Amino acid sequence: MTDYVQATLLRIFIGESDEFEGRPLHEAIVLEAREQGLAGATVLRGPMGYGRSSRLHTAKILRLSEDLPIVIEIVDAEARIKGFLERLAPMLGSALVTLENVRVVRYGHDAGLD
């Protein structure tokens, strides 16, 4: 079996039109993650989805295509993710936030997270 390191996957579900202090929210979150020295962040744009309001967001309907679903994924050590979440609290508004235990098999040239 391959060696691995335990880590935490943070997923933040927001809308493409969500903002924080005049900047797209996904951009503000990724820049904060970088500033905090987290292992990395990825922003995924979904072609379709809905949230708590049940309002459908899809690229197929032109008038709704401005607010497509966005998922931000960040993996790092559990303590670092928890600290990061505390810093993000003022930004998140109606976002859905999930945490998941993951096993990191490879991170760049080494198998661990700092």
Automatic annotation (TrEMBL):
UniProt-listed Gene3D superfamilies: 3.30.70.120
Stored InterPro entries: N-reg_PII-like_a/b, N-reg_PII/ATP_PRibTrfase_C, UPF0166
Cross-referenced Pfam families: DUF190
Family: Belongs to the UPF0166 family.
Protein name: Uncharacterized protein
